[in-house]
Amino acid sequence: MDTVERKISAPTLSSPGTRRLTEPYPCARRLGASCRLAAVNAHLDTLFSLSGRTALVTGGSSGIGLGIADALARAGAQVVLMARTEERLRDAAERIAADGCSVDWVSVDLSDRTALLAAADEAARRFGEADILVNCAGVNLRPPLEDLTEADWDRTLATNLTAPFLLGQRFGPGMARRGWGRIINIASQQSVRAFGNSGGYGASKAGIAGLTRSQAEAWSPRGVRVNAIVPGFVVTPLTKDVSSDPDLLAALAGRTMVGRNGDPADFAGVAVFLAGNASEYVTGQLLFVDGGFSAT
Ligand SMILES: NC(=O)c1ccc[n+]([C@@H]2O[C@H](COP(=O)([O-])OP(=O)(O)OC[C@H]3O[C@@H](n4cnc5c(N)ncnc54)[C@H](OP(=O)(O)O)[C@@H]3O)[C@@H](O)[C@H]2O)c1
């Protein structure tokens, strides 16, 4: 082992939330640089650390939202979960806090505009204004389009599209005034294509793609970056009707390039990237995190 390797693999600096290198850093050897572990970690912190940031994650009690909330907390953010069911919120917060991460929750039905605004104010009062907003809460009602009622439509649009709009209106201008912010919306393959018996949901997710661009256009000049993650098929409570059919599940996995369906943990890296300084020059984009599903 040469000098550089010894310096880098020595157990030294650590701070919560950022993954530490335990292996020799190959580029250091290639460049012949005296790239010390402290410098490597400082570089990674500059790009990815969320220490000092407050992140509000709707839908953070389950599935993809829980995966994202956990990742942001592990990267150093103080995380606030928002969803309806208190028991699931409590369980999720306990799970995230188990490793010493900072997390709390506020219960609210986001399809109720008045309750949403009150909950947003409560979160801000208790935990500070959000620097990072993740709009992940969603519902997918699946009757054939001709059987979709107006009530189904209203509930779908209220939760999946109006809530992200209202939370953006609540927190986006403050982020812009402070000169730094991140909004991450969760879109869907249905933002760009149709899928079986999901007409109302597809319309709401197509709207999320447009909202992402509108929010980016409004606030990017003042330090806010707004992007959407487009998942592939992920087994969660939302997709239990589909995932209870093993043949369909296998067919969906077969359509990906990596040969499997998604897992909530697959969104950790992209969420930390989009929530931090590393995404400084990325805004108004749909990022497909789908194992290549959309590229086939
Ligand atoms: N799973 C997939 O394959 C997939 C693919 C593409 C996009 N997505 C999107 O990813 C996001 C998360 O989905 P998921 O699969 O992780 O679903 P999930 O496990 O069912 O989680 C949905 C979350 O949203 C919350 N929620 C639902 N309605 C709400 C309301 N009215 N007010 C407040 N919170 C509400 C739920 O908590 P409560 O029920 O307790 O309120 C839960 O925390 C959704 O936007 C979904 O459209 C999922």
**Structural class by secondary-structure content:** alpha/beta
Question: The CATH topology of the largest domain is what?
Answer: Rossmann fold
How are helices and strands ordered from N to C?
HHHEHEHEHEHEHEHHHE
Number of helices: 11
Helix content: 40-55%
Q: How far from one another are the termini?
A: 44 Å
Describe the structure.
It is a single chain. The chain is 46% helix and 13% strand. The chain has 296 residues and is an alpha/beta fold. The protein folds into 2 domains: 4-42, no CATH class; 51-295, Rossmann fold (3-Layer(aba) Sandwich), CATH 3.40.50.720. It has a 7-stranded parallel sheet with strand order 3-2-1-4-5-6-7, sandwiched between helices. Bound molecules: NADP nicotinamide-adenine-dinucleotide phosphate. The site of NADP nicotinamide-adenine-dinucleotide phosphate has 28 residues, from helix 4.
Describe the structure in brief.
With 296 residues, this protein is of the alpha/beta class.
Summary keywords:
296 residues; alpha/beta; Rossmann fold; 2 domains; 7-stranded parallel β-sheet; disordered N terminus; binds NADP nicotinamide-adenine-dinucleotide phosphate
Task: Describe how the helices and strands are arranged.
Blueprint: H1 3-9, H2 26-31, H3 37-48, E1 54-58, H4 63-74, E2 78-83, H5 86-97, E3 103-107, H6 113-127, E4 132-135, H7 150-178, E5 181-186, H8 199-219, E6 224-231, H9 240-243, H10 246-254, H11 268-275, E7 286-289
Parallel strand pairs: 1-2, 1-4, 2-3, 4-5, 5-6, 6-7
Helix pairs in contact: 4-11, 6-7, 7-8
Bound molecules: NADP nicotinamide-adenine-dinucleotide phosphate.
